[in-house]
Write a structure and sequence with these properties.
CATH class of one domain in chain A: Mainly Alpha
CATH class of the largest domain in chain B: Mainly Beta
Number of helices of chain A: 16
Number of helices of chain B: 1
Oligomer: heterodimer
Shape of chain B: elongated
Shape of chain A: globular
CATH topology of the largest domain in chain B: Rieske Iron-sulfur Protein
CATH architecture of one domain in chain A: Up-down Bundle
CATH superfamily of one domain in chain A: Cytochrome Bc1 Complex, Chain C
Radius of gyration of chain A: 27 Å
Strand content of chain B: 25-35%
CATH topology of one domain in chain A: Cytochrome Bc1 Complex, Chain C
């Protein structure tokens, strides 16, 4: 009787840490394949990932990690952005002073602003390069058309995020870049003037515009972007993982599972050496499926394909961790050595000459100096529409999953021309334009 | 007679409109319509009815403040007051290209941002500007002061006579 009374509470007390831990983390650190699978499957943060991931998706030279880098930069932007919000006031009389305070009095203020500014520039670059990677490997082809569309929307939201953030320091650069930028919007036919008025809340850039851009920058767009990003990530899973060459799944072609074991050498239909290698892989058979095996659609094939996948734990998670650490290290390094620019406070009477937009809009500004409508509205609209429609025009499944595939020579050539023209325009706008937007030599 | 009465409403009779289908169409229109009304009312909400910045209608002083031949650029108002004899006009100094402030020059107006140039009346003489600088309505208020209304653009060359 006595011992029973003692052992009850005692047992509870001794078991408490283990019980609490066990109630949160259902699985111990995995040591078996089953454990690896359920670790990915039962963890809220990890279950976005597949339990097993194709080897091709882990090749750094295939993805260059650009999508992950974009996401991690966004993560850094959210964290530093929230911290900066503690000291920022979206008021024309206070905003600039707060920038000076970040430099002078706020602990780590200048460092956080640097991180935020350079991550923002980095994110625009990373998202754009990610788009180039996806195009040049043909990864927008069916069944991934809609995810490409989501990606284009994400690029636009990223640019708009950056544009709205540009006004907030309320310095000369901010004021005139937004004056020029919103004037470009007013060239849109029919709705242009209205769009500009609604965006600025007034006819010129002022207090209303600052407040509106602030709300867009810290509330509206940061809600839209993660939503689109979540859809984008979810679609990767639902569209069968990252794109990969057809040879990687070659054995599934018209091949009943029963015949598979006979195939020792390369079958006639598959002539490439990659296919031969694939054929030599052990083939999984006689597996039992749960409900997941029954789902239809363009999912990762189970069963009659060569199993070239590895467990997400630890392979995928380690890869992601490495990319994250590299991204953070890069941002920290740049922020230590380079300060985010801050110009003179706003002077509505005297535009700086030349008044330049952020670098990624300088291609646009260069176009605009020839024709405001065509350069600022016409051509960009056509470009965005072309980007959106491209996966619905170019539907041939050839050369998917390889960089610069020979079958995609024309498409890649056209896309690279588009990229190079825009890069050249940006370089001209950045280095070769001086006062009155006249041609100057940087040397 | 043999048919299940519960299924009668969903029967596809080919061309006839069943009650159920009719009702689902109405519901669909209702829901979709509400969505559009919601979106529109949000748009109306964010479009300001009053602006808090500078008023678009303002007084610039008595006509005597502007001697004949004056071309006075009011940078904060973004307007240039022109007087020629007894004729007074207000020309916008906001560049029609991308909204920079044009400065008064010998030959008219010139923009520092992308090099647009205008003549004395605001007509484009060079650079990327797509159209002439607009003229704003000027009128004499009852208190004898000049009042400019930047919401009302008037035809080039229409002066107020004082």
């Amino acid at each position: 009787m006595n011992t029973q009374m003692k052992s009850g509470p005692w047992k509870t007390l001794v078991g408490l840490p283990q019980n609490v831990w066990g109630s949160i983390f259902r699985n111990p650190l995995p040591s078996s394949d089953l454990g690896r699978a359920s670790t990915s499957f039962t963890n809220f943060f990890l279950h976005l990932h597949p339990v097993k991931v194709h080897r091709n998706s882990l090749r750094a030279t295939y993805t260059l990690g650009l999508g992950l880098i974009s996401f991690f930069l966004f993560f850094i932007l959210v964290v530093t952005g929230i911290l900066l919000m503690f000291y920022y006031v979206p008021s024309t009389t206070q905003a600039y002073d707060r920038m000076l305070d970040l430099r002078g009095t706020v602990a780590f203020g200048i460092f956080l602003r640097n991180m935020h500014r350079w991550s923002a520039h980095g994110m625009v670059a990373a998202v754009f390069l990610h788009m180039c990677r996806v195009f040049l490997t043909g990864s927008y082809k069916p069944p991934r058309e809609f995810n490409w569309v989501l990606g284009v929307l994400l690029l636009l939201v990223t640019l708009f995020m950056s544009f709205t953030g540009y006004l907030l320091p309320w310095d000369q650069l901010a004021f005139w870049a937004i004056t020029v930028g919103t004037s470009i919007a007013s060239y849109a036919p029919l709705i242009g003037k209205q769009v500009k008025f609604i965006l600025l809340g007034d006819t010129t850039v002022g207090q209303e515009a600052l407040l509106r851009f602030y709300v867009l920058h810290v509330a509206v767009l940061p809600a839209v972007l993660p939503l689109l990003a979540a859809l984008h990530f979810w679609r990767i899973r639902k569209d069968g993982g990252l794109s990969r060459p057809a040879e990687e799944d070659a054995l599934s072609a018209d091949m009943p599972a029963a015949q598979v074991e006979i195939v020792k050498g390369p079958p006639v239909v598959m002539a490439t050496s990659a296919a031969a290698a694939a054929a030599a892989e052990p083939v999984l058979q006689k597996r039992h499926y749960g409900i997941q095996g029954l789902v239809r659609g363009p999912f990762t094939k189970i069963g009659n394909v060569p199993d070239r996948s590895v467990f997400a734990w630890p392979n995928l998670f380690m890869a992601e961790l490495v990319v994250f650490l590299i991204t953070v290290a890069g941002v920290l390094t740049v922020s230590l050595f380079f300060n985010a620019p801050l110009e003179e406070p706003v002077n509505v009477m005297h535009p700086p000459n030349p008044a330049k937009a952020p670098w990624y809009f300088l291609g646009l500004q260069e176009q605009v100096s020839y024709s405001a409508f065509w350069g600022g509205v016409g051509i960009p609209t056509v470009e965005v529409l072309l980007l959106l429609i491209v996966p619905y025009i170019d539907r041939k499944i050839a050369g998917v999953g390889r960089w610069f595939a020979r079958e995609r020579l024309l498409a890649n050539f056209l896309f690279l021309s588009f990229v190079i023209v825009n890069v050249i325009l940006i370089i001209i706008g950045t280095f070769f334009r001086g006062p009155n937007w006249e041609f100057v030599s940087p040397w | 007679m043999t048919k299940d009465p519960k299924n009668r409403a969903t029967e596809d009779t080919g061309n006839g409109m069943t009650r159920r289908r009719m009702l689902s169409w109405f519901s669909g229109f209702g829901l979709f319509g509400s969505l559009i009304i919601t979106a529109l009312s949000n748009l109306i909400f964010i479009k300001p009815r009053a602006t808090y910045g500078q008023p678009n209608r303002f007084s610039i002083g008595k006509p005597e403040d502007f001697p004949s031949g004056a071309r006075v650029s009011l940078d904060t108002r973004r307007v240039c007051v022109v007087r020629d004899g007894d004729k007074i006009a207000a020309i916008s100094t906001t560049c029609t290209h991308l909204g920079c402030i044009v400065s008064v020059s010998e030959t008219g107006f010139s923009c520092p941002c992308h090099g647009s140039r205008y003549d004395q009346d605001g007509n484009v003489t060079g650079g990327p500007a797509p159209k002439a600088l607009p003229w704003f309505d000027v009128r004499l208020a009852p208190n004898g002061e000049l009042e400019i209304d930047k919401d009302t653009e008037i035809e080039q060359g229409s002066y107020l006579r004082v």
